[in-house]
Amino acid sequence: MIDRIWMNGEWMDAGNAHISPQDRGFLLGDTCFETLRFGEGVIEGKAAHIKLLRKSMAVLEMQGGPDDADIYAALEEAEAALNKSGAIEASVRITFSRGQGRGAVVLGEPMLVIQMSKIEAGRPYAPLKLITSPIRRNETSPLTRIKAGCYGDHLAALRHAQKAGGNEALMLNMQGNVAGLAMGNIVVFKENGLITPPIEDGVRAGFMRQQVFKRMKDQGLQIEERSVRCSEIEQPEGVVCGLNSLWGVRPVISIDGRQMPNSSPAYEQFVLRA
């Protein structure tokens, strides 16, 4: 079943799953999505990810498609199939497309797709080597706060970083404040907690960010959400880490070739107790 795809309530062989060339996701990137991690025998945060998907749909004013209960049931079926396949780690992606048609004209029904892909080398991932991107994130756009399908800026930033010898991009907003990474959020673990950019600076409050905040609060560690300047990331008083659903917490080893600290009390406490 790892080679099967769920489309609007029906499982089918991947080779038989087709999207119309008139689909707005294909034509316009008029989609939103969630990426979930399968590991230790479970798909993490199923209900939380569905809630985040609904939030993205609300921002994009999307409606229709399968209900939450059907999506959750499909994720449970995907979880069982991944366990049966012997997968150790996998990526499970939910994609929602508004429908078909160009411009403002929407035709047909929306499409919701669930796909599974095995991950050959999962957690822990290699440390991040960040390259500051010349591409800025527009904090005034509602799309910066959700996982919208038009991911061109993020991918361009990632390619730039890879060409410069890194494996991830550090992205700033239009004010020059830190907004995050091409593929995740960013935090700095300090003496008694962490600092991280606020939503208003172009940050998406994703699943792993929520999980880290919860664990920090459970451990009595402080969370400071505020605008972060480049100097605080480039010369941090703590450990800089990237976050996303697949990585978990991934330390940054360098930024633009400068080596980063690899230890702080809050980071040690968080990692040991996470």
Automatic annotation (TrEMBL):
<dbReference type="Pfam" id="PF01063">
    <property type="entry name" value="Aminotran_4"/>
</dbReference>
<dbReference type="InterPro" id="IPR036038">
    <property type="entry name" value="Aminotransferase-like"/>
</dbReference>
<keyword id="KW-0028">Amino-acid biosynthesis</keyword>
<keyword id="KW-0032">Aminotransferase</keyword>
<dbReference type="InterPro" id="IPR043132">
    <property type="entry name" value="BCAT-like_C"/>
</dbReference>
<protein>
    <recommendedName>
        <fullName>Probable branched-chain-amino-acid aminotransferase</fullName>
        <ecNumber>2.6.1.42</ecNumber>
    </recommendedName>
</protein>
<comment type="pathway">
    <text>Amino-acid biosynthesis; L-leucine biosynthesis; L-leucine from 3-methyl-2-oxobutanoate: step 4/4.</text>
</comment>
<comment type="similarity">
    <text>Belongs to the class-IV pyridoxal-phosphate-dependent aminotransferase family.</text>
</comment>
<dbReference type="InterPro" id="IPR001544">
    <property type="entry name" value="Aminotrans_IV"/>
</dbReference>
<keyword id="KW-0100">Branched-chain amino acid biosynthesis</keyword>
<dbReference type="GO" id="GO:0008483">
    <property type="term" value="F:transaminase activity"/>
</dbReference>
<dbReference type="InterPro" id="IPR043131">
    <property type="entry name" value="BCAT-like_N"/>
</dbReference>
<dbReference type="InterPro" id="IPR050571">
    <property type="entry name" value="Class-IV_PLP-Dep_Aminotrnsfr"/>
</dbReference>
<keyword id="KW-0808">Transferase</keyword>
<comment type="pathway">
    <text>Amino-acid biosynthesis; L-valine biosynthesis; L-valine from pyruvate: step 4/4.</text>
</comment>
<comment type="function">
    <text>Acts on leucine, isoleucine and valine.</text>
</comment>
